[in-house]
Amino acid sequence: MYMKKGEFAFGVGRINPMKAIELGLVYEALKEDYIKCFVALTLGRVCKDVKGSQKDLNYPSMQALIESGKSFTDEFSRTVTNVGPVGSTYKAKVITVSHINVSVKPSALSFRSSGEKNSFVVTVSGKGLPIKIRVSASIMWSDGTHNVRSPIVVYTNEA
Predict the structure, then answer these.
(1) Residue 133 domain flag
(2) Can you say how many angstroms the Cα of residue 85 is from the centroid of all Cα atoms in its chain?
(3) In the chain, what percentage of residues exceed pLDDT 90?
(4) Where would you tag: which of 11, 57, 75, 89 has the fewest CB atoms within 10 A of its CB?
(5) Domain-located, residue 142
(6) What is the pTM of this model?
(7) What is the domain-level CATH number for residue 92?
(8) Cβ–Cβ < 8 Å for 107, 91
(9) Cβ proximity of 81 and 117 under 8 Å
(10) Does some domain include residue 132?
(11) Which residue from 75, 121, 62, 73 is spatially nearest to 100, judged by alpha carbons?
C-alpha cells in the first residue's frame, strides 16, 4: 500500500528536555553546504558546470523525485558526528514498505571518541511507481540508548 501521509504524518510531539541534551548523533551542515546547495538548485538548470544538488546536503532527511513508471536508484551520502558516549556503536534498522528497497552501508557505525565523524551511504531503489505518489521509509540508528531517525521520501510528479 502506498502511504498517503507517510513521513508528513509525524507531529512535533512532546519535547523531553532531558533527552534533548543527550542527542547521541548529529548531522552537521555548514553555511557553505547550504550555499552550494542553493547554487546547484538555482544555477544548475542553466549551467552544466555547477555540481551538486539538494540531496547532497548533509541533512537527516532524504528525498528523491523520480520518474513514474521507471526503475530508479538514488544514493545519499551522509556524515554523522558522535556527541554521545565514547565507545558507542550504532546499528541501522531500515523501516520501509515493499515498493522500494533501502540499504545502508555500512550498517553499523562505531565511535571511539566524542566528536568523531563517520559516513554512510543510503541507496534507495525501486521500479514502476505510479504518477503522483509518495512512498515513505526511514532509517533508525540506535546504540541501545539513543535513537536517531532519518526519514526518506520517494515521490513522483505528473507524467
Answers:
(1) yes
(2) 23
(3) 42
(4) 11
(5) yes
(6) 0.82
(7) 2.60.40.2310
(8) yes
(9) yes
(10) yes
(11) 73
Nearest to 118 by CA among 94, 95, 84: 84
Segment 75-92 mean pLDDT = 93
Number of structural domains found in the chain: 1
Tell me the CA distances in angstroms from 21 to 17, 24, 70, 117, one per residue in order: 7, 9, 44, 19
Neighbours of 56 (CB within 10 A): 15
End-to-end alpha carbon distance in the chain: 21
Average predicted confidence (pLDDT) for the chain: 83
Cα separation, 91 vs 141, in Å, equals 5
C-alpha cell at 146: 539513543
**What single string gives the DSSP state of each residue in the chain?**
---SSGGGG-------HHHHT--SEEE---HHHHHHHHHHHHHTTT-TT----GGGS--S-EEEEE-TTS-EEEEEEEEEEE-S-TTEEEEEEEE--TTEEEEEESSEEEESSTT-EEEEEEEEEE--PPTT-EEEEEEEEESSS-EEEEEEEEEE---
